[in-house]
Amino acid sequence: MRRSVFAGVGAYLPERVMTNAELARMVDTSDEWIVERSGIRERRIAAAGEKTSDLALKAAQAALDQAGLEADALDLIVLATATPDETFPATACAVQAGLGMSRGFAFDVQAVCSGFVFALATADNFIKAGQADTALVIGAETFSRILDWKDRGTCVLFGDGAGATVLRAQDGAGTAADRGILKTALHSDGSKHDLLYVDGGPSATGTVGQLRMQGREVFKHAVGNLSAVVGETLAGTGLGVQDIDWVVPHQANLRILDGTARKLGLPREKMVVTVDRHGNTSAASVPLALAEAVGDGRIQPGQVVMMEAMGGGFTWGAALARW
Ligand code: UT7
Residue ranges per domain, the chain? Predict the structure, then answer.
């Protein structure tokens, strides 16, 4: 049995901080409403000309540094984004070039806010199949570019950023006590398109489009889907909710995090929370939170970590790992 072990984690946030007070000068909202309904206090916004691949490259370099690896050690880059630099080529290829990586292969995956979990599962499966030994998995977004800054129902919720992890194959693992990714579970339901989508695209309209969301409807599905997929991911591993040391959730809304913890019967302190400072960074939110909790020493080697996310599509999924 081959396992994908986490060798390094990295993050990058754009310098510019946008506060709720600033948003309240742009649309009819207030710091009080945003904090009460979402838990968000501020978010980062990419500078003019700063692309998704620029954020991704900085996070990737930090993850490689932590792993003590050069880019040429990589066989594979999987980058999750819904805000690519260009329609094509893949933003992952821009990162490959930026790292000076002359071998291997790179591609994007698109599962919106669940993108990092989908990318992690993809890389894990390439490693388990023996087609890659070392993989860089990135979640990177510039959602500020696809927001309707006149729509108070959405523009207050999202932010920009990137996070990255390096996975390395480890042979000989076989029981749930071993390190690395133990199990992943992925889902989608294309019938929920209209609840969260972008009203543009190269084939549909020939425009980039802007994010549209029926927030209350998305919210209704979130806690149920997330707690179910966490249960599904634990099933058959010999581990239960009580064995989870940290949940690293997609950071959409503090109330969704609290609701999921309650439904799972998990102490709230086990949830890694960054939504207050990052907002919803879509595919970047899970690796950004992971990087923070590894960086400040909360996540320790040997601990059990559950990552979970849900987003447009709908898509949702989870990944269970022993750090
Ligand atoms: O990452 C992908 C997945 N996305 C999510 O998980 C997002 C899920 N949804 C949510 O997080 C929440 O639904 C929101 C934070 C988007 C909204 O919270 P809510 O408690 O569901 O509020 P609501 O949409 O039901 O709106 C309540 C009221 C409405 O006014 P009326 O109709 O009651 O008069 C909205 O027009 O709040 C109003 N409202 C605002 N007021 C001040 C909506 N946005 C704002 C705003 N400031 N920014």
Answer: 2-171, 180-322
